[in-house]
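Internal ticket #5521
Category: modeling
Description: The requester needs a full-assembly model to guide mutagenesis choices. All entity lines are attached below as received. Residue total reported by intake: 1500.
Assigned to: D.W.
Attached entities:
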Amino acid sequence: MVGGGRGAFIGGVHRMAAALDSEIELVCGAFSSDPEKSRLSGEDLCVDPKRVYGSFKEMILKEKKLPENKRMDFVSIVTPNHMHYAPARMALENGFHVVCDKPLCFNMKEALHLQKLVEETGLLFALTHNYTGYPMVKQARAMVKNGDIGQIRKVVVEYPQGWLTTKVEDTGSKQAGWRTDPSKSGIAGAMGDIGTHAENLAEYISGLKIKELCADISTFVPGRLLDDDGNVLLRFDNGAKGILHASQISAGEENNLNIRIYGTKAGLQWFQMEPNSLIVKWLDKPMEILRTGVGKLYPEATAHTRIPGGHPEGYLEAFANIYRNVAICIRARLGGTEAPAVYHDFPTVSDGVRGMKFIEKVIASGKSKAKWVEV
Amino acid sequence: MVGGGRGAFIGGVHRMAAALDSEIELVCGAFSSDPEKSRLSGEDLCVDPKRVYGSFKEMILKEKKLPENKRMDFVSIVTPNHMHYAPARMALENGFHVVCDKPLCFNMKEALHLQKLVEETGLLFALTHNYTGYPMVKQARAMVKNGDIGQIRKVVVEYPQGWLTTKVEDTGSKQAGWRTDPSKSGIAGAMGDIGTHAENLAEYISGLKIKELCADISTFVPGRLLDDDGNVLLRFDNGAKGILHASQISAGEENNLNIRIYGTKAGLQWFQMEPNSLIVKWLDKPMEILRTGVGKLYPEATAHTRIPGGHPEGYLEAFANIYRNVAICIRARLGGTEAPAVYHDFPTVSDGVRGMKFIEKVIASGKSKAKWVEV
Amino acid sequence: MVGGGRGAFIGGVHRMAAALDSEIELVCGAFSSDPEKSRLSGEDLCVDPKRVYGSFKEMILKEKKLPENKRMDFVSIVTPNHMHYAPARMALENGFHVVCDKPLCFNMKEALHLQKLVEETGLLFALTHNYTGYPMVKQARAMVKNGDIGQIRKVVVEYPQGWLTTKVEDTGSKQAGWRTDPSKSGIAGAMGDIGTHAENLAEYISGLKIKELCADISTFVPGRLLDDDGNVLLRFDNGAKGILHASQISAGEENNLNIRIYGTKAGLQWFQMEPNSLIVKWLDKPMEILRTGVGKLYPEATAHTRIPGGHPEGYLEAFANIYRNVAICIRARLGGTEAPAVYHDFPTVSDGVRGMKFIEKVIASGKSKAKWVEV
Amino acid sequence: MVGGGRGAFIGGVHRMAAALDSEIELVCGAFSSDPEKSRLSGEDLCVDPKRVYGSFKEMILKEKKLPENKRMDFVSIVTPNHMHYAPARMALENGFHVVCDKPLCFNMKEALHLQKLVEETGLLFALTHNYTGYPMVKQARAMVKNGDIGQIRKVVVEYPQGWLTTKVEDTGSKQAGWRTDPSKSGIAGAMGDIGTHAENLAEYISGLKIKELCADISTFVPGRLLDDDGNVLLRFDNGAKGILHASQISAGEENNLNIRIYGTKAGLQWFQMEPNSLIVKWLDKPMEILRTGVGKLYPEATAHTRIPGGHPEGYLEAFANIYRNVAICIRARLGGTEAPAVYHDFPTVSDGVRGMKFIEKVIASGKSKAKWVEV
């Protein structure tokens, strides 16, 4: 693991997600750019002190020298955006599979280079757009793919949060600090942090690509350096229209990612905060609520469900589905085969490139007087 | 009443709304442009046959000749859009107050003329943007006005319906027929029929005015003559940003008008299909659900509530609030006074002009390559 | 109308319900046992002063003397429980149909006498168990009757309110006063006031009869004279089991009547505070939500719906369904025929007798050491 | 681990719950009473084959012989009810802490003996009444304890499931098989399997004890050997009244455990299927919805929350809270201290004895003609 030391948020999430299914063991780490902090964090986590490293470079080089069956099987990168590229690149160049937090990296150039490296090496690269790990998101995608809702006409995807309604970055919050700092986060604030989740979710479920967009990007909190709100009109490659909005100043909102997709036969609705329900509004029969683990669902949903219906599965289980799938794919590779297709269902470097392009274009559109910007 | 004969929809709604509080009696009507149909409809409605007229012109002229205390007190216009202007104008010109269905009329020219007539005559003119009649909408408006949610930064207003997902206008549906016919509906379909409700609701609660908009207007159903979907970015006069979308091809949606308003202190959420709840998401304390008739609400809400909390009030009660307020205002005028301010709370010709301008600009923006169109 | 003068609650509800469909006109009344108050109330209501009476006796006698086409068509009784019997009896004995608020009367003896009178006279007698007037309640009943949910095994009906959590009757509340006064309310408080609604709803939807019950009846508020909470085990005539609980000390509850019925094929759930949804939990397919006015419902539901789906209908509309049906039945009789069966769907004196028996038995069980009391 | 081999359900849940926080490692097991199946299951789980045992006896004896820092730290028992007592007893007698699935054991005699052993040995004994592990359940308990809702008057606890609506035990379902088999499950079916969860939840949150109960216990599915539904009136030691019902024939219900507690100041409502919300219905201010991880909650809630508000935590996280607390307590003991009180918050052998008594009394009441049975 690279990053995720004391005081970090997403590192702990990655560790719980990786541990849940007992498929993955945390064997080494460079938990902080500060070697002493890395050491202490390793201690907290009961990692063998010999494998707690002072930098990701040291980690990758030393692990590589270990015998194949003793070294780490993949690298997990959980640092802020500006520190994704270097460790990811080095891991790939040294033959390690990678799991990387989103967004992929700092800018398009880095993104395209990582994509190239993945293509060249054939290594696995998972990007933790974790919301696609929910069983009912997979059910929605399968329903669309199987034509259950007809041809898609409209997509509405929202990601309102309220935690940056005030200038939290001035209060010492580590999370708020780097996310609103252009030198760490990149050109986008909210649009990069959560807008990309919304974009990824919309394209994942719909199977469509955003072709053009028209954005109104705002910074509401005085003195903030990056956007904290964005409203975007979308046009998809099949002619469907859409709306995407993401915000971190929607006072009182927790983490209210949600999506509605309307086809010619039905509308689908999914809310991340009630993730075990998928609402299907049929044109010609009563509204249905499909539920995780209940009744006959598509295999894509069932394969990502752990417990019977009515026992709620949450964010960590969805996140863990990425890690479990990666673990299964790596194990298959170690055994000289490929895992079944259902386990190759996790976001990859391509989703990451797509996300970086979205960031680039949405920020450009925000500044543009032209109505439409091509993606 | 003008219009609302056999086979009409909104006429019946107006009659129930007017009857609910026993303040208003249906005394005469020109229920159809077909005199025989008007006669039969009058019979259905137990209106004195002598006061069932073959045309609105006849009605207005003959009623005017009746002694003051025998003639109708106001005219209710419930015809399709293209037949609002003429009876409204004639009623005003002959000294009758008017209640008119929305949108106000067919185009801006008519709208401005009606506004001028209202100003000149001093008569009451109510426009049935009935959704502002709900008690919790009034509570929301009062909360905004009293600064409870701080300064408004973002408004999201939605009006998805699904009933025009297929080409219903070809199946003989009277409702679908005129709404998709430019000669009756005007330049807009969904944006006029329901988009104006969304626009009106957003401005009513927020107290803000839309300053600029950027619209993507679509007709999804092949062969349809007017728009059936629109996605719009909004900019308000105080600097707030917003999204408005209205659709009649959102498969499976009933009549899902809803609004979210985010201020610096809290977010408000109201859903027309659960109209007795107002969700308040505070920045710094637990989310609250305010309920019609429960606890201490603003007088504006209480004055429009009929029964104790937990006994759901619906669409007709909200609609009836307009009629009741108009009746109280007229009665006060008949008595030579003005009703208290709380009863003057109904949409007027100015809201109608505003709505017509919205229609004009949103359709223009849909055709424009420029990003922003001023309203 | 008998009762419903200034300061009353349910009288106004009856008037709005009666007015909504323009089928019924308030022509006369004895609005209070105090003649002066009756007179003033009549003035408020714009009733012809000659037909505002000082007592129900005077009203019935004088109206009877009017020519048939000038006299009132039926009597509406909206007084507290102890004043139902006398006017109801006198109305029936003088040939007037009756609409009476619930519970039917003060005790079983009165109830049986009224039942006998109705049988003898053949007059219409409607009891305003208004919750059965909701379209989705009628849909639920029709689904049960048509075998859609299989054989019923379990019924859970709840009616929690919180408004009597403190000793409100000591604060001058007229509503709380008579409801907690044994000389006006009868032997039961909460169980009579709202327990009977729960009992009526359960038997109406299920089509079953309660055969035995076992009750734990409580008075929680010190000094209160009647029960304010009751928990009851039920056994139905088909072998189904059930639970009924009603409470007026469930702090924070508004008017949360709800019912769940489980059969061998599906479970039905309806909540009065969201009356336009009927949740159907199927054993072998996804949960459905049926909605007032949406899609294909049973004719019993459709016949009691006024407006299209998504336009919420509420408590007054449900209440009005009783009045409208009664009006249609009376008009048919006046024309020498009987109205179609779908309009004879309103609670009658038999439901009232059933409710009085429930009150008698549930209070007896509360005092009994034996487990089961036969109904 | 004892039990939890191939084909089992709850064993996997225990393993995920134990793994989530990387505090616990599965080091040995007797996964089945069939040694070969145990061996294969151990293989599946990557447990060192030398520590995969053919029986719990072998496991306990051999592990005890290992050096202290090599042997297992505690035993986890995940077998059907009739196989809890023997391994639990032997573990305690040999100095091992125990985590045991619920209900505690097969009958009261076993229960009391286990309780005695725990008292004598001072070992830790956790019972996985996992629903008390949810943060908002802990919040509810703390609110009650701190007097926030006043004095409790009424408790309604429900646990409807529908999965045994048909005779599933005849279809080869292992889960249904032992649960409906008196030789494995004990004297109770649904009341033992899920009724005890309801009982435990009610006493845990309320801090009250059930003093008397009156039960109607049913077996609806023909040929089934144990109860599949039960309705129970409750009386608590402080004078509060209550209702408990549990069912496995409530068609269409998933796992709908829920509780409502009404005090003199407010009502609390929690639904297991939406576990991150705690609804507080105040007597004198608007209803609030408290949310996991959002705002200022009691430390008992916060200490059992892993991720920020809006990222749903589910069943496995609640279950894991028991394991994590046990791990922290054991580690403290290994270090010669006691963990802080907040981590001693898990169900113990006393809860288990209480549950066994509930089973005994509720079944006795079901057969009794007397109204009340003392607990």
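Resolution: model delivered.
Comment from assignee: Chain C has a mean pLDDT of 97.
Ticket closed.
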